[in-house]
Write a structure and sequence with these properties.
The protein is of the alpha+beta class and 247 residues long. It has a single domain, classed as Alpha-Beta Plaits (2-Layer Sandwich). Helix content is 22%, strand content 38%. Strands 1, 2, 3, 4, 5, 6, 7, 8 and 9 form a nine-stranded mixed beta sheet that branches. Strand 8 and strand 9 form a beta hairpin. Helix 1 crosses helix 2. The chain is globular and about 60 Å long. The relative contact order is 0.24.
């Protein structure tokens, strides 16, 4: 089976949970919708592009938590234009130039120094292949960031393809470029608690194509229903622990 692996690291990033009202909390690992949004941005897809649905249908998703980072919150204020039917703004500059501005307040959660390895695979209905995705992740069309625009990525994604027997084997056989692996090793020594072996776990789509036995199953609301309207459906996700280190 063929997998596309890439590194996901942001010195300060956000993995949003369901966020009604003013509290914008974050999950401990990237959502499927966030990662497919990253892929869509690399492809140059705008939010209303129907190809987002192709990514949702055609790709399987897994994430290995190499370092969960540390959470912190900030008190966020922002000015937004008054909403009117039929009016849209192309840029933040256009928003701030509107005749009427309102101030919104929110508490937002972030994570510092969180590091993950992402795995994608093609499903039977894949319209966009792994080879094309690997190319754009190395040379993205739009600027990529860790959940929010204030959280730029701290390392290259370094996309790499691997042919192995299953998901665990894909992570174990990860052909990480040597220079990037050295940087990651130094980061992990600094970020992980002293004396900790760095227990890791994998969360993955419960696809028939992936022969990985889950120790537990969690329900997430991060399946893309309508990207332009920020609507997401429920998804079942398997989780398995790898113990200490990147086994």
């Amino acid at each position: 089976m063929r997998f596309l692996l890439f590194t996901y690291y942001a010195p300060m990033g956000a993995m949003g949970e369901i966020a009604p009202g003013e509290r914008r909390m974050a999950f401990s690992r990237p959502a499927r919708s966030a990662v497919l949004g990253l892929v869509g941005a690399a492809l140059g897809l705008r939010r209303d592009d129907p190809a987002h649905a192709d990514l949702e249908r055609g790709l399987g998703y897994a994430v290995r938590t190499d370092c969960p980072g540390r959470p912190f919150t900030d008190y966020h204020t922002a000015q937004t234009p008054q909403q009117r039917r039929g009016r849209a703004f192309d840029t933040r500059r256009d928003e701030l130039a509107a005749d009427t501005l309102n101030t919104i307040l929110s508490v937002r959660e972030w994570r510092t120094d969180a590091l993950y390895t992402i795995a994608l695979w093609e499903r039977a209905r894949a319209a966009i292949g792994l080879d094309a995705i690997a190319v754009v992740l190395a040379h993205p069309r739009f600027v990529l960031y860790g959940g929010r625009k204030a959280g730029p990525l701290g390392l290259p994604l370094a996309p790499r393809l691997v042919d192995v027997d299953g998901l665990r084997a894909a992570f174990a056989a990860d052909p990480m470029p040597a220079e990037q692996q050295q940087i990651i090793d130094r980061l992990l020594r600094r970020m992980r608690p002293r004396g900790s072996g760095g227990s890791t776990e994998i969360a993955f789509d419960l696809d028939a194509e992936v022969a990985a036995e889950a120790e537990r199953v969690e329900t997430r609301r991060d399946a893309i229903a309508a990207r332009a309207r920020f609507q997401f459906g429920e998804r079942r996700e398997g989780v398995v622990s790898l113990g200490s280190g990147n086994e």
